[in-house]
Amino acid sequence: RQSRARKRKEIEALHEFESTLRESLTKAERQVCTLQEGYAKVQQELEETRQACSLLEQEHAKLRERITRSEYDNSRLNAWIDKHIIQNGYLLPSAPPPPSSFI
After folding, report:
1. Nearest alpha-carbon partner for 83 in 96, 101, 70
2. CB-based burial, 32-56: b 16+ in 10 Å, e otherwise
3. Residue 80: pLDDT band by 50, 70, 90 thresholds?
């Protein structure tokens, strides 16, 4: 009888342990799902950030190009002013108009 009672207690303890393990496994699986969802969201945000960064880099390159062109045009206009206004003290009626890129 004691042997049967002991075996019954051992079986009950094993069932309880198995139940605890199943609950822990279920909880761990839920945590894994939550982490996978979070990872997918972060990956999506990262891709969106990369795309936005790429667009900003393209815009930056365009603006740098416009600045470079403006600086070049400014230097040409300054040269024209030096040649036709400053050297003569005033704009002569016969002076050619400024380059068309400045109009």
Report:
1. 96
2. eeeeeeeeeeeeeeeeeeeeeeeee
3. confident
Alpha carbon separation from 26 to 29, 69, 77, 79 (Å, rounded): 5, 64, 76, 79
Indicate whether this model's pTM tops 0.70: no
Q: Please state, as a whole number, how many other Cβ atoms lie within 10 Å of the Cβ of residue 89.
A: 7
Q: Give pLDDT, residue 5.
A: 87
Q: For residues 56 and 66, what is the distance between their CA atoms, to the nearest angstrom? A: 15
pLDDT tens digits for 87-97?
666 555 555 66
pLDDT, position 93 = 55
DSSP conformation letters of the chain = -HHHHHHHHHHHHHHHHHHHHHHHHHHHHHHHHHHHHHHHHHHHHHHHHHHHHHHHHHHHHHHHHHHHHHHHHHHHHHHHHIIIIITTSS--TTSPPPPGGG-
